Structures are given as C-alpha cells and as structure tokens.
Write the structure tokens for this entry.
Amino acid sequence: MLNRVPKTVLLVAFVLLWLVLGLANRRPGYFANPQNLGYLLLIEALVASIWMYRKFYFLILILSFLLAGVNLPVGGGIWTAARWAILAIGAFVGTMIMLKSNPGNFRMFHVLALLAALTALMSATVSPYSSLSLSKVLSFFLLLLYGATGARLAVMGREGRFFSGLLIGCEVFVVCIGILYFAGIEAMGNPNSLGAVMGVVAVPILLWGTLVRQSSMSYWRRILLYSLAVYLTYASHARAGMLAAFVSSVVLCLALRRYRMLGKGLVISAVIVASVAIFQPETLSRVAESFKSDVIFKGQNPEQGVFSSRDAPWRDTMTSINQHLWFGTGFGTSDTGQDPTDRIGTFSSSSVATEEHGSSYWAIVSWVGLAGILPFALLIGALLGRIVQSILWMYRTADPAWGFVPLAIVTLAGLVHAGFEDWLFAPGYYLCVFFWSCAFILLDEFQFARSYFMNFSNPGQTFVKTTPLPATSTDGSIATSVTLEARMSATPAKVSGS
C-alpha cells in the first residue's frame, strides 16, 4: 500500500499528524470545541483516504461537495470551506502519484484543459472583482487537475469495482432523496438542482444498470429506482433536467440497439395516460393543465413563448457580451454595477459579483469574451467528439458492459442540461465536479475499449460475439465488474488512457 503513495505525500501527512499531536499536548482545551473536533475528524478522514487514495478519495471528494450544497442539517457549515481543501489535496496527491507511475499519460484533451485554465486566469485580470475571479480560476484549475489525475487513478486497474460502486452509490442516493422528498424535505435546496442531479446523473446511470447482466432481483430493483428517478425529475418541474433525462434514455437505448425496451417504455407510458383519460378524465385534465402551466411555461404568460422565463437572463447576458465583447467580465464574475469593495463570499459565490446567464455556454462567453473563448470551445468540442465516437462504438458492439457507456451518456446529458443552466464551469457545484471527473475518465475508458477490440477482435467478426458477457452472479452483484476485470486480466498490458 505504501509503495503506491509518493514519499512527499507521506512526509506531508506525518508532519500534519505531528503538528496535531503537538497542539493537543500544548492546548488540550482546543479540542473541547465541537467545531474544532469536527475539523480534527475531517483531517483524520483525509489522512486515511490519502493512505487508500485510489479506493476512497473520489467518494470523499464528491460527498464533500454534495454536503456543501444540500439543504440538510449535515450540509453547509464546515463543508463549505472543507471541500476546497479536499479538492486541493486530491489534486496534489493525484498529480504526485500520476507523475510517479504514469508520467507520459497525458494527451491533447489535457493540454486543452490547461489552456482553458490559463485563459480563465488572463480573464480574471480584467474583472472588477479580480480577487474573487482569481479564486474561481484556482478552483477550476484544481478541478481540472484532479480530473486529469485523481479521478483517473480511482478507475485505473479497478474498473469493475469503480463502476459497480458508482451504480450502488447512485441507488442509495436516489433512495435517500426519494425518502426525503416524500417526507416534504427539499434536500437539494431547490427544484432545479433536484432536476439536474436526477436528469444528468441518476436517470442515465440507473437505466444503464438495468441493461447489464444481473440477477432478476437486481434488475427489478433498478427498474423501480429508475422509475423513481424519472418521477423526481418530473416532480422538480425542471425542463432542463427532463430534457437531459429524455435525451440520455433515448440515446442509450438506441445506441445499444435496445429498441424493444424503448418501445415498451413508450407503450407503457401511453397505456397509463390512456387509462387515466378513460377512468379519471378530470385528473388527466388537471395534470395536463398543471404540466402546461408549471413546466412548459413556468407560470409565465403562454403568449410570451416557451422560453419567456429565460428571456431576461439571456437578454442581460447578450448586453454584457456586447459591452465586454473581447475580454469579457472575468471568469466566474459579472459586471453587476455594484461596488467591488462590497463584501464577497470567501468560500462561496455572492450575488454581488455574479448573475444568472441561463446557459453555461453563454456564461463562459460573457466571462472570457471572444478573445478567450477558443480554448473552451475546443475543450467542449473534443469532449463532444469523444461522446459521439463512444455512441457509435456502442451501436457497433451493442454491449453495455464497458465503462465508457455510462460515462458517455452522463456527459452527453450534462452538455444538454448545461445549455439551460450555469453550472458547467462553476467548480463549487457538485454536478460540475462529477461531470468533469466523468469527462476525464471517459477518455481512458474509451481508449481502453477501442484498443481491446483492435487487439482481440477479428476484422470481419461482430464485436459482441468476441466479448460474451458472463453468467449472472449468484449474489446479485453487477456483472459489469466481472466482465471488465476479466477483460483486464485477458489483456497482455493495460492500455494507457488518452
């Protein structure tokens, strides 16, 4: 275990431990404070996670950002500041391990991510809130650095366990959010966040989980949880979340040639609607009117159009772009016209320096201007190209038991959703952290799958026949873990990611 962690990281961990023990010896009353005790426990958890970095650090990072954003007694507070320390430590340790074990394992996508971060840094110099903009640039850089190192290390060599854990974690998350929702607790803070996390993450991952080989009990459990995630997406009345869930579900079924499943879903939906129309026409009329008013038009006048709720932020963003056409307003900040000396949040954004844009793509154009948009456009374009390649390979193989399958669908759903929300380049948002981690992992997983097929498939043979799925596990565990680890062991040498 120790030989996988660089000596520099171990030295830093031991120094921190020595300082904590010294402080406890000299000032024992310091640890009588519950808040200080909480920080100490967090430090201990971080040291333990660094010790087993590949296994647990990704989970701790995602949980820290999630807890910082949820509307629960355990949320906010210490996590608002601690998430940045966890991200910084994760990026540093991941970089040290990657440089030691795989120093040449970086490709063009990583270069584009670095150029995007440098462009964001230059844009911060023109921001009226330069200190806030610089802090957001640093956060975004740390996120990209962690994605390029730590997130990839969490998967390398343990693909099966990682994706099995990802699916199980998604199941647990949907169950918890569902229980809180029906108890009347808005855990995600607002309906848009609920729709985002369900439509971008839960729906595509759970649908993928129903497609892999598994026991009958696991299959029906995931069908039930998928249905719950779809319901929560609809209950949020978030149109962007609904669109992301719909696109991801349809594309996944079509790409894997599961036409029957897609047809069954449409038929079942039609039967439910028809049954309600026959036996309870008043209920159907009320639901249809509520859907039209609350979802389609968002309580606005229907004569103003479907996007009337987006008109104001889009119009303000276009005005800002015209006023700061070339160099933008600075990464993560907007020219709100308020006094730059006003109090600005230290560990979270403030309305003093930011405003809604109604789209992540309009937001980045407003922030960095035309002079700085090219690296971000190339970064998104490269990711979109890899998603398209993944979908084409999914159609060619019709095999869901590859790691790039859920990652490609999640990132596709994220890009769709980001067209109507501002989170794609907001590193403090848990969905942003999860999205960019998945994006970097996707590159490795697709490259590995493609190299595997090139090495082990006959030119004229159908791919799905060359990689048969294993029998269902008796304990109901996801068959993907067996499949991926079997393929890893069958491969002469692990293919480096791109």
Q: What stands out?
A: The two ends are 26 Å apart (CA to CA).
